Amino acid sequence: MSVWAILVAAGRGERLGSDQPKAFVKLGELPLLAEPLRRLDDSEWVDAIVVVAPPGWEEPAILLAEELGCAKVRACVAGGETRADSVRAGLAEVPDDAAAVLVHDAARPLLTDEVIGRVLAPLADGWEGVVPGLPVSDTVKRVGSDGGVEETVARDGLWTVQTPQAFPVDALRRAVSGGADATDCAGLVEAAGGRVKVVPGDPLLLKVTTAEDLARVASLL
Ligand code: C5P
Question: CA dist 76 to 5, 52, 124, 141, 170, Å?
């Protein structure tokens, strides 16, 4: 019984303003993809990794994994149009006898083994998804296109969620089989009626979206 990790790295990253896909933009000396890949490969929890690369970038992704000496990479496949399509492509490489599957955004390089352990543990209690999250501390408002406030949303019980997200492999397969899309995998599992638990995330699991995010993550390496 093994834990498989799907590293989704097929996003275009248009908001970074680079002509390369986000996963291959430089973070320090190496492509962004290197840091989360190395951390998953080093994790005591992870047995096997599937890398989902931007279409046409499978070979550079494999070469990078070899250069880093990542021994757990079992497959590298091309991603799809949406994040859910990319997860579907990665999940097709995961065997049915896997104990659990972790899905992680390559755009969150600062992954730790503590967070991986925290999302895997509750699966033993029968949860169909476990996600790391942070309670919202700012005041939240819904704002119209003219900048006008439409509503102040009560923040009690509101959390922002991150990756890695953990699932029993059959629960994630059922959730993605319908062809639906969502901004995270847990959303697909919830839509399929699955029970999802939130555990404490990590403020350092920042997601790289803009050039400023990239500089911030680079300063934390
Ligand atoms: O676009 P967003 O920042 O939400 O993407 C989150 C993660 O999903 C990133 O690591 C990105 O590479 C991945 N992704 C993907 N395939 C897509 C879109 C996003 O693998 N079509």
Answer: 12, 6, 29, 41, 21
